[in-house]
């Protein structure tokens, strides 16, 4: 991997994040929500992974891994934040959500590694 590629990946990801925040701050909640729902990181990553020699196979394997990982760790993360935010505030709810996410993601990665899944 060369420095030019790394810079392009970094700028692309940063542009999407900036767009989402700007839309939210300008009270464009629907557009911000839509942009947030877009799989920005996988979209950008898969475009670049897909351009590699074994891109189609790599994208397929990775997408299966991400799909299962999303169900196991991302959905509980979002549920914790949505349930706790009204009662304990956004920052604490996000912290709790991240804690849940990391515990579940670590367990998922352990199982994937132990049983050599998604290869």
Radius of gyration of CA atoms, rounded to a whole number: 17 Å
* First-residue to last-residue Cα separation: 22 Å
Instruction: Give the rounded overall mean pLDDT.
Output: 90
Given helix and strand content, the structural type is: mainly alpha
Largest sheet: none
Strand content: under 5%
Low-pLDDT runs? none
How many domains in all? 2
Shape: flat
Work out the number of β strands.
0
Q: In DSSP terms, counting alpha (H) and pi (I) runs of 4 or more, how many helices?
A: 5
Helix content: over 70%
Order of helices and strands: HHHHH
Produce the secondary structure layout:
Blueprint: H1 3-25, H2 29-37, H3 40-50, H4 55-88, H5 90-115
Helix pairs in contact: 1-2, 1-3, 3-4, 4-5
Q: Quick recap of the structure?
A:
The chain is mainly α and 119 residues long. It has five helices and no strands. It folds into two domains: 1-38; 55-119, no CATH class.
Give an overview of the whole structure.
This protein has 119 residues and is mainly α. The protein has 2 domains: 1-38; 55-119, no CATH class. Helices cover 87% and strands 0% of the residues. The protein contains 5 helices and no strands. The chain has helices spanning 3-25, 29-37, 40-50, 55-88, 90-115. Helix 1 packs antiparallel against helix 2 (29-37). The model has no long low-confidence stretch (mean pLDDT 90).
């Amino acid at each position: 991997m060369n420095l030019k590629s790394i810079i392009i990946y970094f700028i692309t990801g940063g542009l999407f994040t900036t767009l989402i925040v700007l839309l939210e701050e300008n009270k464009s909640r629907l557009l911000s929500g839509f942009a947030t729902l877009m799989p920005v990181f996988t979209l950008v990553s898969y475009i670049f992974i897909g351009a590699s020699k074994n891109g189609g196979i790599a994208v397929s394997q990775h997408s299966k891994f991400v799909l299962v990982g999303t169900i196991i760790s991302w959905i509980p993360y979002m549920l914790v934040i949505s349930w706790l935010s009204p009662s304990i505030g956004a920052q604490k709810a996000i912290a709790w959500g991240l804690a849940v996410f990391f515990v579940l993601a670590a367990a998922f990665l352990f199982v994937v590694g132990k049983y050599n899944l998604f290869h």
